[in-house]
Design brief:
AP-1 complex subunit gamma; elongated; transport; about 800 residues; 5-stranded antiparallel sheet; 31 helices; Clathrin_a/b/g-adaptin_app_Ig; ARM-like; cytoplasmic vesicle
Length: about 800
């Protein structure tokens, strides 16, 4: 058989292919020749054939048939064969294939080989694709090589030890003695890998973290030598000595100094030196400064050092590199709540980033700008954000409008300014605002009694001839219907009144009704407004009757129903019309966030006190009622109880029985699915009955400590407790869900169940989105009736979407404080 072509010739041949089909034909022909050679056990050219196979694997073609040949090369005594064999094993094998276990013995022999390069190959392979079984078998050899005096082997052994610890964390203590002298090494390669190993051990074990905190002075000394050392051609990168090692040490210091006063104090000086002495003209220096800033912000550093770190981020915002500007904005967004005043100094630079061409920078700048708004700068910041809203891309308008609404509601200097700002948003981006903007603005206008004439006049002028912004038209129609008499009378004192007749007002509303741009909802607003004007106007009642009767035959069912009912008011119930259509009273805003809210002051010295009112005493529907039957999987399970008495069967349709599987808090056997015939359950009045005459909750200062019920994957659930005044057996639990990751958690649903001796009621959550970076929380109220004063136990289920994936998790909460149930 002729000798196979060399790898270089194969590469040259494949590159001459003009089409994908031609390349595929060449590859298939060569693969066939390689298979034939493998079948004939051709030891002479096995190394060459596997090398060609690896090249074809890198091009994306299947090469799995070469796995056993890699093992044969590893078992060879020739270094060239071993090199290709180990490379092939790292590329073609992984721990999901059992064939990788066949090379365990070969790796063990090579780890004890007399040649350091063969030992290095074995260490690289084990550190790349070693399974947990291989790591357990070979950890002893790795630990021996970690103690050797050969720096070439020590750096590879340290990286291999990192892989072993990741696969088998319980082997961590085996490497502890070997780490004692690693930081005394002069070789930068060994130092670098040693820091990586120490970082991995500290991140995985609190005990190791406490043990290695005593190394902080030594790490500080190494870092100081790096920044003070002269030029070293071996380690110099753009004029900076070994930036890779500096970055690794800064990351390790960040872990060691977190939540530890002594360690943080020991590294304050060196962090200040790095921050002031590092050259910023090159990207290498910016990388070190960024890691320094993260370390300063994460440890218990001095206030002056934190200001220095924020000033560095402020300089990053002026950099021409988009990536540097982006990481600066992201870092400032994380620190704005803790160091608000320091970030405020860079407000003008942050606002300038709103004009950046890069959309990711623009979004981060918008989020940070909203975080900087407070009562002192509300006018200036709103001016910039409204300008941004006017010129930004459509994908920003919804978030920007919502942010402006929230900021204006929280910090508005006057009612007129508040109304003007929201009207400007509706005029600029009305089609993009969220659904709750219209009722919120209507409520604001209703409660601003002295501004009614001014507001209706502004809205009337805003929609003259332009019905494109539907939310604006809806608010205008509602206000004209409510306050049309003020519009016609010209009583506006805030600005020059306009002269409008009753017919002109009706012309506008009729134009809204017949406009092609008007949605069904908008037409409903307009028709109701026309009907209301029948009690405000005196000269046009017959015209209003005619308009209403026309729409009694509309093809829009909603509009038709309204018109028919309004016609009936004119005919059968005309004596009740003026009472039914009288002006709306001042509305009270109902908060669904539980009995207490957290006020963020954004740097103001005196936050406004928040009044908390007891929720209404009427029954509140809950969508979770009876949805968690058999959630705990035992015989003593109670469903979620609705607020009103119900005669609904205990079964919620069968599909939710045993929702979480055979989970049992009491140790009883799991309940079998309920039979088709279930006796009716008549629940007694529950929780909200008889609460209208007294405050619902005791003061928060009852001494019941809060608990963390769940903390995993960046999601944290905290429980706070209160007791009902009217019924001591009722415990009111307010959950707060926060998200420390970099992306929002959407479609968040919290479900809970308790044993049968308790009764549970879930009220509606404040939102379904948990904002990223802990910038907000979801709150939800749980009410538990515990008549027998038994220890409280609960099983919770969490579902949400994060990073494009649907997440679901279960947890058991048994650490309720005794004050919450005794």
């Amino acid at each position: 058989m002729p000798a196979p072509i060399r790898l270089r010739e194969l590469i040259r041949t494949i590159r001459t292919a003009r089409t994908q089909a031609e390349e595929r034909e060449m590859i298939q022909k060569e693969c066939a020749a390689i298979r034939s050679s493998f079948r004939e056990e051709d030891n002479t050219y096995r190394c060459r054939n596997v090398a060609k196979l690896l090249y074809m694997h890198m091009l994306g073609y299947p090469a799995h048939f070469g796995q056993l040949e890699c093992l044969k090369l590893i078992a060879s005594q020739k270094f060239t064969d071993k090199r290709i064999g180990y490379l092939g094993a790292m590329l073609l094998l992984d721990e999901r294939q059992d064939v990788h276990l066949l090379m365990t013995n070969c790796i063990k022999n090579d780890l004890n080989h007399s040649t350091q390069y063969v030992q290095g190959l074995a260490l690289c392979t084990l550190g790349c694709m070693g399974s947990s079984e291989m790591c357990r078998d070979l950890a002893g050899e790795v630990e021996k090589l970690l103690k050797t005096s050969n720096s070439y082997l020590r750096k590879k052994a340290a990286l291999c030890a990192v892989h072993v610890i990741r696969k088998v964390p319980e082997l961590m203590e085996m490497f502890l003695p070997a780490t004692k002298n690693l930081l005394n090494e002069k070789n930068h390669g060994v130092l670098h890998t040693s820091v990586v190993l120490l970082t991995e051990m500290c991140e995985r074990s609190p005990d190791m973290l406490a043990h290695f905190r005593k190394l902080v002075p030594q790490l500080v000394r190494i870092l100081k030598n790096l920044i003070m050392s002269g030029y070293s051609p071996e380690h110099d990168v753009s004029g900076i000595s070994d930036p890779f090692l500096q970055v690794r040490i800064l990351r390790l210091l960040r872990i060691l100094g977190r939540n530890d006063d002594d360690s943080s104090e020991a590294m304050n000086d060196i962090l200040a030196q790095v921050a002031t002495n590092t050259e910023t003209s090159k990207n290498v220096g910016n990388a070190i400064l960024y890691e320094t800033v993260l370390t300063i912000m994460d440890i218990k550093s001095e206030s002056g050092l934190r200001v220095l770190a924020i000033n560095i981020l402020g300089r990053f915002l002026l950099n021409n590199d988009k990536n540097i500007r982006y990481v600066a904005l992201t870092s400032l967004l994380k620190t704005v709540q803790t160091d608000h005043n320091a970030v405020q100094r860079h407000r003008s630079t942050i606002v300038d980033c709103l004009k950046d061409l890069d959309v990711s920078i623009k979004r981060r700048a918008m989020e940070l700008s909203f975080a900087l708004v407070n009562g002192n700068n509300i006018r200036g910041m709103m001016k910039e954000l409204l300008y941004f809203l006017d010129s930004c891309e459509p994908e920003f308008k919804a978030d920007c409008a919502s942010g402006i609404f929230l900021a204006a509601e929280k910090y508005a200097p006057s009612k007129r300014w508040h109304i003007d700002t929201i009207m400007r948003v509706l005029t600029t981006a009305g089609s993009y605002v969220r659904d709750d903007a219209v009722p919120n603005l209507i409520q604001l206008i209703t409660n601003s009694v002295e501004m009614h004439a001014y507001t209706v006049q502004r809205l009337y002028k805003a929609i003259l001839g332009d019905y494109s912004q539907q939310p604006l038209v809806q608010v205008a129609a509602w206000c004209i219907g409510e306050y049309g008499d003020l519009l016609v009378s010209g009583q506006c004192e805030e600005e020059e009144p306009i002269q409008v007749t009753e017919d002109e007002v009706l012309d506008i509303l009729e134009s809204v009704l017949i406009s092609n741009m008007s949605t069904s909802v908008t037409r409903g607003y307009a028709l109701t407004a026309i009907m209301k004007l029948s009690t405000r106007f005196t000269c046009t009642v017959n015209r209003i009757k005619k308009v209403v009767s026309i729409y009694g035959s509309s093809i829009d069912v909603e509009l038709q129903q309204r018109a028919v009912e309004y016609n009936a008011l004119f005919k059968k119930y005309d004596h009740m019309r003026s009472a039914l259509l009288e002006r709306m009273p001042v509305m009270e805003k109902v908060t669904t966030n539980g009995p207490t809210e957290i006020v963020q002051t954004n740097g103001e010295t005196e936050p406004a006190p928040l009044e908390t009112k007891p929720p209404p005493s009427g029954p509140q529907p809950t969508s979770q009622a009876n949805d968690l039957l058999d959630l705990l999987g035992g015989n003593d399970i109670t469903p979620v109880i609705p607020t009103a008495p119900t005669s609904k069967p205990a079964s919620a349709g069968g599909e939710l029985l045993d929702l979480l599987g055979d989970i049992n808090l009491t140790g009883a056997p799991a309940a079998s699915p309920a039979p088709a015939s279930v006796p009716q359950i008549s629940q007694p009045p529950f929780l909200l009955d008889g609460l209208s005459s007294q405050p619902l909750f005791n003061d928060i200062a009852t001494g019941i400590p809060s608990i963390t019920a769940y903390s995993k994957n960046g999601l944290k659930i905290e429980f706070t407790f209160e007791r009902s005044n009217t019924n001591p057996s009722v415990t009111v639990i307010t959950i707060q869900a926060s998200n420390s990751t970099e992306l929002d958690m959407t479609d968040f649903v919290f479900q809970a169940a308790v044993p049968k001796t308790f009764q549970l009621q879930l009220l509606s959550p404040s939102s379904s989105i948990v904002p990223a970076f802990n910038t907000g929380t979801i709150t939800q109220v749980i009410k538990v009736l515990n008549p027998q004063k038994q220890q409280l136990r609960m099983r919770i289920k969490l579902t949400y979407n994060h990073k494009g994936s649907a997440m679901q998790d279960l947890a058991e909460v048994n650490n309720f404080p005794p004050q919450s149930w005794q």
